[in-house]
Amino acid sequence: MTTRRILLLLPVLAALGAGGYWYAQKAGGEAQTAKAASPAASRAIPVVTRPAEARAVPERIATIGSVQPIAAIAIKARVDSVVETVHFTEGQEVKAGDPLFTLDARALDAQLRQAQANLERDRASLEKAKGDVKRYAELVRTSAISRTQYDAAVGTADALEGTVKADLAAIEAAKVSLSFTRIAAPMDGRTGTVNAKPGTMVRAADALPLVTLTQLRPINVSFNVPEKHLPAIRRAMGEGTLPVTAGIPGSRTGPAEGLLTFVDSQVDQQSGTILVKGEFPNTDTRLWPGQFVDTILTLRVDPQAVTVPDVAVQTGQQGRFVYAVKPDDTVEVRPVTVARSQDGLTVIASGVKAGDRVVVDGQSRLYPGAKVAEHKDAEHKPDAPAASAGDKKTDAGAAPGGAS
After folding, report:
1. Helix H or strand E segment including 244
2. Which residue stretches of 203-326 are H helix?
3. Are 214 and 190 in contact (CB under 8 A)?
4. Contact between residue 306 and residue 54 where contact means Cβ atoms under 8 Å apart
5. pTM of this prediction?
6. Which pLDDT score is estimated for 20?
7. How far apart are CA 108 and CA 177, in angstroms?
8. Average pLDDT per run of 10 along the chain, which is 404 residues long?
9. Burial level of 60, CB count in 10 A (0-12/13-18/19+)?
């Protein structure tokens, strides 16, 4: 009986021994795992940080503009004649008053001489009529002639006076027409394609100009800005002149500098923009009519704006925020109010002060209270490292409910 009990107890004891061994192994394994995990939990997350800086930041409006001449004059003939001489070459720059074309003036010169001859004839007739009036006045007092004859002589003299005045006007008209045969430049500019060569018949009714003269100095750059900027532009214009720059894409020279001179009187309702123009001296003729340029209108300059790199600003469920590094090298989520972004920098209206360290790279692994350390290669990285779209999504999702 005793032997039987012993045999029955042996499996139970073996099971208990195996269970104890398994429990001891599990407890030891968990202890080792916890021991190995504790250094990882306290390990600092490598990040790249930059301090928020107070600097002068201009408020600018950048857009595409087109170069337009202040004046482009189509030179046309004002009399019917034949081109006799062309005094310039295509593309030549001319000064105001320089001769451009000479037309055949022989017919108009003959008309002038004819008008002058008519004047001499009518003046002679007028002198004779005045002498008749003087003689008839003496005769009518002695009743040698009738009053009717005297009145007729006076009427003839008055008519001839009118004829002489008409002759003088005809001479002036002939001189004006004759002056149209010598076409001079009305302003400084550059000539375009010449549409009339020597021997070409030209008429005052022709639609095609002889040549187009385009003013290059100074010159305008016109561009459209969104209507939301109109109050700021008008306010800034009231305080002083607004600088405008025009850069030529692909050019090695710097942008041309000018001043804003014109704001259109109404907003284009279809595009929601308003037309403005800047005037440029263009002394080196860098800007060419019809050219597209990159224009930048500067409204004002904030002398002490708090800025952080654009990549430091993240977007969460409740707005924008940055990861700010505290003195103990842990991070906190700092909601910020963004004023604007300019040249890779974000101007912070509130939430960050000058000197605060913010994370610009490595935000995807951060959480409030995380321990961070400056990346060992941070000094070799650019000031504004680019953050991937995946990082921004992770950051947005990682932001706590209080981030904005």
Report:
1. strand 243-247
2. 230-239
3. yes
4. yes
5. 0.70
6. 52
7. 7
8. 57 57 50 44 84 94 96 97 97 97 97 97 95 89 87 93 96 96 97 96 96 97 96 94 95 94 96 97 96 96 94 93 95 94 91 95 92 72 40 39 35
9. middle
Output phi, psi for 110, to 5 deg.
-65, -40
Token reading at 382: 């650019």
Instruction: Report the amino acid identity of residue 267.
Output: V
Two structure tokens written together for 339: 């004023």
The tokens describing 287, both together, are 């800007």
Looking at residue 60, the DSSP 8-state letter turns out to be E
Predicted pLDDT of residue 377 = 57
CA 59 to CA 71: how far, in whole Å?
32
HSE-up of residue 213 (Cα within 13 Å, Cβ side):
21
Instruction: At 107, list the tokens.
Output: 């017919």
Sign of CA dihedral 109, 111, 115, 117: positive
Find tokens 């190995």 and name the residue: 36
The residues pairing with 335 across neighbouring beta strands, listed in sequence order, are: 321
- pLDDT value at residue 54: 95
**Pair of tokens at residue 91:** 């593309």
